[in-house]
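haha ok so turns out i had the wrong file open the whole time. this is the CORRECT one, sorry everyone. sequence first:
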Amino acid sequence: MRNLCIITGATSGIGLELAKIYSCFNIDLLLISSNINNLEKTKKLLDNNGANIDILEMNLINGIDLEKLKEKTDNKLLYCLINNAGFGDLGDFVDSNLKKAQDMIDLNIKALTSLSYFFLKKNKNTTTKSYLLNVGSVASFMCGPKMAVYYATKAYVLSFTNAIRRENSNKFIKISCLCPGPYKN
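then structure:
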């Protein structure tokens, strides 16, 4: 059975850089993004590294298509999940676009939670090492005027990750939260 690493938000920024790294190992990759053109470009970019790369167009804001995900992960050892997809917005909350703020919550919190649940359920009885990496932010540690919803979603990511890490501390699953500072794509 082949090892599989799922990476969300894998077509730019941190997700793309992690996909580049993982494509150099003997691990199958499943790259998830809402933009099929960017997924195909990323797959083409990484194809020369020797990894088996599969892509899945899925707008995580609209929820997780568990059937598609199960189909893509059948007959594979779910070795790693990197929950990287997310976005932020700048401005006073009262003047912001409420739909955009709700989409941010759906992606940064709901999708990450659902994918973490899928990963942990699939690996509940594993006796081999597996890894879950949730991408938070340095924003996870403070309030964020002008980016209130983004900072709040990243605080959730850190708190949630710490809690599930403790729940799974005696298992073969290693759970971490990456909290990078600002970066430019």
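The first helix runs from residue 13 to 22.
again sry for the mixup
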